[in-house]
Amino acid sequence: MADKVTKTENEWRAQLNDEEFRVLRQAGTEAPFVGEYTDTETEGIYRCRACGSELFRSHEKFHSGCGWPSFFSPLAGESIVEIDDHSHGMVRTEIRCASCDSHLGHVFKGEGYDTPTDLRYCINSISLTLEPKI
Questions:
Q1: What is the mean pLDDT of each run of 10 residues along the chain (134 residues)?
Q2: What is the DSSP-derived secondary structure letter of residue 30?
Q3: Catalytic: 122?
Q4: I need a labelling partner for 51 at 20 to 30 A (CA). Which of 23, 57, 63, 78 fits?
């Protein structure tokens, strides 16, 4: 895991645009089917938009039809942190970047997707940047 990134709210606001701040720092959700990486098939590494930490690889991405990029496994288990989320009258598992504590999305288990882990890491496109394979 990369070094821990700590910034003040004002530093994050200066770095991120309003929508990025809302999703990454305030645990918002972008609208489905509009994100930059929802249907992307480019090979490469997906990084945290806030701090640049490596999170997922393109070969772990799959089309779930949910409206957000989906992955069946993070790059390394220590690159993310899972947190119980009881908001909006649901019980879910929130995913945050282990380096900067930015909100990425949620992970869902046992949905029956034909993937090696039967997990769906449902990630906001706006929480990611893609470093294409050269």
A1: 83 97 96 95 96 94 94 82 81 92 94 91 96 90
A2: P
A3: yes
A4: 63
